[in-house]
Amino acid sequence: MNGFDSPITDQEFALFQRLIYNLAGISLSDAKRVLLVGRLGRRLEHHGLATYTQYYRLLASGEQPDELQQMVDLLTTNETYFFREPQHFDFLRDVAVKERNDPYAFRAWSGASSSGEEAYSMAMVLAEHRLDGPWEVFGSDISLTVLARAQAGVYTQDRISGIPPAYLRKYCLKGVRSQQGKLLIDSGLKQRVRFAQINLTQPINGVGDFDVIFLRNVMIYFDAETKRKVVDNMLPHLKPGGYFIVGHSESLHGITNRLQPVRPTIYRQPR
Question: Are residues 112 and 181 located together in one domain of the fold?
Fold first, then answer.
């Protein structure tokens, strides 16, 4: 019997629910049982294991930290695309233009950047509208797999439909030879974007302060306690007067009273 054939018991599924919650703060609902089996079954097969209990023991032993990271990567990969929820990028543009004469670097953080589309979308906006003003974008994620894709800045053509044509011409390149059919982020733009692995449920150090923080379409995977913990970990890095932006299906109501609502999904740190 291989991993694809191995059934998962209620007790085994509960073990993985607790494990991914403790590691990444993600509440894996019972509806995600098929997803878990589909993604982790390959790892059972890879290691020649017959049950999910055996795989859990392998992870819990601490003998293979790379395997634990791979498990996290498989269960935390989220869907993203360029200029998702475009109103937020219009707002970022307006803030960047308003503060164009600020001599300090304008810094934006893509808190759950996945494979980088959000961070590069932010970078295109800032490159276009900050003009000679200094700026930088920081992208973070818990998954090393998606961060590697983000750092490469190479995407398939079906991922680019949301990019405005002017930005596409100015900040993207068509792949040639081995990268035929791919889209490459312009190297000049890519140099202005830094990525790093961060677990938002843990204390965050060494990232500096930001004018704008995007934390979009990730809190839907957290329970209320984890949402409060994540926001509390990020807010010390938001400048006074800075903006905190969540996804259109999300809200900070009941999560924090330290931010002032500006409009739905957009909040401001008091000065």
Answer: yes
Does any domain span residue 164? yes
In which band, very low, low, confident or very high, does the pLDDT at 238 lie, cut at 50, 70 and 90?
very high
Handedness of CA 34, 38, 43, 46 (dihedral sign): positive
What does the pLDDT look like over 100-155, one tens digit per residue?
777 788 999 999 999 999 999 999 999 999 877 789 999 999 999 999 999 999 99
Catalytic site residue from 43, 73, 130, 141: 141
How far is it, in rounded angstroms, from Cα 90 to Cα 127? 14
130 flagged as catalytic: no
Same domain (yes/no): 70, 116: no
* Count: domains in the chain: 2
Note whether 75 and 83 are within 8 A (CB).
Answer: no
| 39 is an active site residue | yes
**pLDDT number for residue 161:** 85
Q: How many residues does the chain have?
A: 271
Q: Distance between CA 103 and CA 99 in Å, rounded?
A: 9
Catalytic residue among 33, 39, 84, 149: 39
For residues 133 and 91, membership in a common domain is answered with yes
3 occurs within a structural domain: no
Instruction: Check if the beta carbon of residue 219 is closer than 8 Å to that of residue 230.
Output: yes
Do 39 and 132 lie in a common domain? no
Q: Which domain holds residue 46?
A: 10-76
Amino acid symbol at 105:
A
- Rounded to whole angstroms, how far apart are CA atoms 114 and 140? 8
Q: Which of 96, 126, 122 is nearest to 110 (CA)?
A: 122
Q: Which CATH number does the domain housing residue 22 bear? A: 1.10.155.10
Q: What is the DSSP letter of 147?
A: H
